[in-house]
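Limitations
The structure tokens in this dataset are predictions for the assembled complex, not deposited experimental models. Users should treat interface geometry with appropriate caution, especially where small molecules or nucleic acid strands are included. An illustrative entry is reproduced here so readers can see what is and is not provided.
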Amino acid sequence: MREKEQSLYPIVANFLAKSHQCFRTAINEGLRYSRADVIGIRDIGGDLTGEIETIIVEVKRGSEAFATSSGQAFGYTVYANRVYLADKRPHGFSQEEVQIANHLGVGLICIDAKNKCSITLTSPFYKPLIRLNAQLLEKLRLGKCQLCESYIEIGDGNNRYTRLARERLDKAINEEKGIIFWNREVGDRKDKHGVRLVKENSTYERRFLCSDCVSLLGQLRS
Ligand SMILES: [Zn+2]
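Predicted assembly:
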């Protein structure tokens, strides 16, 4: 019996974490318009910026139409900076397959007979839709500090903001936490002009500060 596609997800996730130095991976993650087989997040900003990169991999077990699978992988460019198709190929990808992937602009990860992964083709870098990428990162409990622009852990498991104090600077400083606050002026403007696509009750228009920036701000008190 052929192996299930889903059994390959953790294998590809482990490979992605190692080959791309991802500090966070996720498998079978539901997104607003689709579902991603494997997601990896890595730091790419060097020592001077907190930039991160989102990578999404579409995983197949070697039995589906290649151009269709490649096109599916390309679709993730609305969420991610790099997109890959990982496909089972005991003898590697054919030259024509590499040409198709290259033409469409998706990277290729080869899964061999022993489920060992290797990169055949690197993905180009894309600029995703900012809203969809930010939603994906928040689902993985990552949020951007508005001061130093680094991405920080904002919650645990199903709890979105457990690592943050809510609009209480004194509490955040004392507990050495980051902070979540809401921008009501911008929130009201988006409501007024109907640009908010999905109502999320009280948690709309939220912003974060990391614990390091909060600690610096704490010096203003003394
Ligand atoms: Zn910060």
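Some entries come with short summary sentences. For this one: Residues 145, 147-148, 150, 209-210, 212-213 surround zinc ion (CB under 6 Å).
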